[in-house]
Amino acid sequence: MSEAMTPADAFSPGADGADGGQPARRLGANKVGLAGVLMQAVAQISPTLGIFYTIAFTTGQAGITAPLTYLLAFILCLTLAVPLSGLARRMPSAGGYYTYVSRGLGPRTGYLTGWLYGASVALVPAALAAFTGAVLQDELNSEYHFNLPWWVYAVAILALCWYVAYRGIVISARFMLTMGAYEIVIGLALALTGLIHPGPGGLTARGFLPSHIPSSSGFFLAVVLSIFAFTGFESAATIAEESRNPTRFVPWAITGSVALMGVFYVFCAWGLQVGWGVSKLTALAGSPTAPAFVLGHRLWAGAWLLILIALLNSGIGVCIACTTSSTRTLFSMARSGGLPGWLARVHPVHRTPSRAVTLQFGVVIVLLIAMGVPLGATNMFNLFGTTGTFTYVIIYGLGNIAAWRYFRTEGRDESSIIKYVLFPVVATAALLYIAYKSYIPLISLPAAPVLYAPVIVGVYAATGAGLLIWALRPQRRGWMDHAGVMETLAPVPEKVGE
Predict the structure, then answer these.
(1) CA distances (Å), 373 to each of 131, 150, 173, 380, 453, in order?
(2) 420-429 pLDDT, tens digit each
(3) Which of 221, 279, 464, 465 is the most buried (most CB within 10 A)?
(4) Distance between CA atoms of 464 and 115, rounded to whole angstroms?
């Protein structure tokens, strides 16, 4: 909103009539169905990236019981998803955690939570695009001697993400639905091929037996990483205002994405291990090339390229999903008056937060060049992956506390000891353990640049605190009355040419 407009005006019908009499700060309602909302969450989880690049580590730590680590991670992530889905059902809002925590714990805490989520997720595409570009460069150069620099691929991916996010949630949903379905099919097909043509050691289900868990603490460290592989399910909440029947579809998408990815990860981990050969898992854990590519070359011959395309799909999908969820969160904060008003502008035709999308694109391009080039794509990916772990611990933890408090007070008509007391306690304890194990995995500190991940989280938090001080000035404090308020979900009349 402009400085002359009060925060309350942003919630008034027809506010800022420059949009031809339409509300200038309302997203396009009723645009996306259940499949689109579900794939928003699945795309941000990034299925093939999640399994192809964690299976070596989980196998190194848990041996043959790596599939069991994903099963336990799935159960723990459900304890996060269930309370969140309850909040999403009661408060359908593009603000997501900003709205939920503001309503449950107060606007100041909600502001910091919303900022941490919006800012941190907005930067993820820089690291994911860099990593995807590096994989493309390595594989295409190795197989076809086509050696285009990784940053060229990364910039192209980010430009595509900007275009899709700018044009509207419908095209974003279609992209993610198509790409997500493809990568899931390829991942399952590769795992199934591995089970049909097992490597040395044959077909076995010993990986699901607790009696085969290694005696070392490596198994629990593998569970930690497996939990992080599920992060992203919460992003379904941020497109509530653009979905049909959000009070049903968004909760279903949050828990459904966790369930779907639970089945996917467990089956793929089992199939990849069996296909590789359970008697040669040490080689899988130490493979310098992603095991999925090695297995694809052996089992699929020239069709291994389908796996590379699935990985590219996953990289593009997660970048689009992160752009969507982060810009909706920041847009919601600006709409209430907590961030500068120009971020709250909605495109008059596409009904997207176009200025927030364009700002995010500019920032990630600068970050890609400023950090990715000197650090290298893989180091940048590892650094922001660890940073994301710490940030999600804070966000999910505050979300759990907000759910507990909300359903003990304002939402006590739906109070449930299991869903809103037991689950938040178990999940929060697991998150604290994740943070500890992520930074001190084996007594010694991680090497640089991953060592500096908590510093980046500190920068996020300090920036958020500075913005909160700015937002608490007397002339701007009106946003506090609207931080936990949901925008009207009535459809906006479409313009000709939309």
Answers:
(1) 12, 10, 31, 9, 18
(2) 889 988 888 8
(3) 221
(4) 6
The residue count of the chain comes to 498
Tell me how far apart the alpha carbons of residues 121 and 238 are, in angstroms, rounded to a whole number: 12
Residue 480 CB neighbour total at 10 angstroms = 20
- Whole-model pTM? 0.89
Alpha-carbon span 43 to 36, nearest angstrom: 10
CB 175 within 8 A of CB 40: no
The per-residue pLDDT for range 146-180, each reduced to its tens digit, is 999 999 999 999 999 999 999 989 999 998 999 99
**Closest of 486, 427, 476, 385 to residue 96, by C-alpha:** 486
Residue 372 is classified by DSSP as: I
In which residue are the tokens 């909300």 written?
406
Q: What residue ranges do the domains of the chain occupy?
A: 28-472
Count other Cβ atoms within 10 Å, centred on residue 293: 20
Q: Around Cβ 479, how many Cβ atoms within 10 Å? A: 24
What is residue 346's three-state secondary structure? Answer: coil
Asked if omega into 449 is within 30° of 0 (cis), the reply is yes
For residue 182, give the amino acid letter.
Answer: Y
Q: Sign of torsion, CA 128 133 135 136?
A: positive
- d(CA 479, CA 134) in angstroms, rounded, equals 43
Distance between CA atoms of residues 208 and 266, nearest Å? 10
Buried b / exposed e across 362-387, counting CB within 10 Å, b at 16+?
eebbebbeebbeebebbbbbbbbbbb
